[in-house]
Amino acid sequence: MDKIASPQELTSELQQLLAYAESPAPSREKLAHALLGLSDRVAKDLPGERERGKAVKDLIDAMSVQYPDVSKKEIEKLVESAVSSVGYKIKDILKKQRTASSEHTATQTGYGIFYRMIDQKELVKLYNRLEKEDEQSAQLLIDAASEIQKALNISSGAEDALSRIMDIVNRGQHWDIALLRNNIFKAANSLGMKLPSYSF
Fold this sequence. Notes:
- This protein is mostly helical.
- It has two domains: about 5-155, no CATH class; about 155-190, no CATH class.
- Helices cover about 70% and strands about 0% of the residues.
- The chain contains ten helices and no strands.
- The longest helix is centred in the N-terminal third of the chain and has 18 residues, at about 50-65.
- The radius of gyration is 20 Å and the shape is elongated.
- The model is unreliable at about 90 and about 100-105 (pLDDT under 50).
């Protein structure tokens, strides 16, 4: 599988692992294997440490509830070891990103766009169901979701414009014309378009 190169991807992976940990009778061995597998896919100097820390804490808490016979200290060690050992892997990814052309430095927005269209809880529920009966399909579902997210990566300006246009279309039918104009002009400006007027 591909390397994890954004906090959103890491959070998604940890949420899926948390969902599996909270499912009926999860395998302790499988959880340990999945955590160690993350170490090969995650990288150092990942931004969004707070989000990652919360996801890791949630995973530790869920595993502590699921396995009360294992000390929380041992679970923390396993989880922290897996997550911290990945820190040494991201330097190469970040170095490549810094030297890439400006076309390749678009922000990682595919995650956000994907989960605007897909209900994350429903995806996790479906994954959990498949995991019990068809592991290959379950894994392929997650891999396909990850590939779609990569394909949806756009610039931060395009993401801002998309967000504004979605708001206008979905909620702005009764907005004041001045507010609609402001948002439309800001969306176009975010895309670098030539504006017919600078009065907005």
